[in-house]
Amino acid sequence: MGCTELCIYLYMFKYPFRPVARRFAFYPKALNHPRRLVPIRPHLYQPPEASSVVAHGCGIYVIGGMIARKRSSKVFFLDCRFHTWTNLPCMGLGRASTAAGVVDGKIYVFGGCKEPHSHKWVEVFDPKTHTWHALQTNRCPQASELESGVMKWRQVMGLEDLRDTLCASKLVNYGWALPSKHLDAMLPGHKLSNCGPNMLLFWDCLANWKWEIWCAEISLQRRKKACEIWATVEWSEAVTTIDRPLRHPVHHCKILYSLSFNI
């Protein structure tokens, strides 16, 4: 029909006892059905953590990650039109938590490898030919050029209605054996995505002994005279519920990433 639809893809982990990766599609502008997370069949061999994701063409590239504490060189492609997976050629090096992006139709992957001075520190993937090649650099990968500037943080006003549910995010007891003060920094309970000019905020919340994933669409307005930024919550609701087994009643959901995509 020549039409496109905005979709948000979420990738989550369920913690702490048996980590289970779950991927969902979310359609914020759906009119004929309620806003819900639609589960997507996962790839059986995808690394469960530290992968990088890039949206390009008709789908999402999942690059590298950690498998059994080792960096992976595997690359997978999720076709967002049909929710099917394809195995792509591996990178020259195993990588985890890389910086990845698209420039002129090619995917550039930086760092994340065990050998920081390797000649393959930067690799480039051509989606047309399905080939990787190393990008030669003439300077140390640790070097960087920073431009100084002034940044001032301001509180966003008007979000009082979300305070109760946001305060419940990450409200979890990790048990005696796991130090929660360290895990809190590793397990963020929220993630931001764009929805046109607005923001989508996802977070987890404990309700009725179940974990709920909530979403709110927020529009922003700058008030120049008062030098304030005001937010309006267009809508806010639970978009899915994750059951917790009785033998392990305490779980937590880590939202690894959220990616906006036009299908």
From TrEMBL:
<feature type="domain" description="FKB95-like N-terminal Kelch">
    <location>
        <begin position="34"/>
        <end position="139"/>
    </location>
</feature>
<protein>
    <recommendedName>
        <fullName>FKB95-like N-terminal Kelch domain-containing protein</fullName>
    </recommendedName>
</protein>
<dbReference type="InterPro" id="IPR057499">
    <property type="entry name" value="Kelch_FKB95"/>
</dbReference>
<dbReference type="InterPro" id="IPR050354">
    <property type="entry name" value="F-box/kelch-repeat_ARATH"/>
</dbReference>
<dbReference type="InterPro" id="IPR015915">
    <property type="entry name" value="Kelch-typ_b-propeller"/>
</dbReference>
<dbReference type="Pfam" id="PF25210">
    <property type="entry name" value="Kelch_FKB95"/>
</dbReference>
<dbReference type="InterPro" id="IPR006652">
    <property type="entry name" value="Kelch_1"/>
</dbReference>
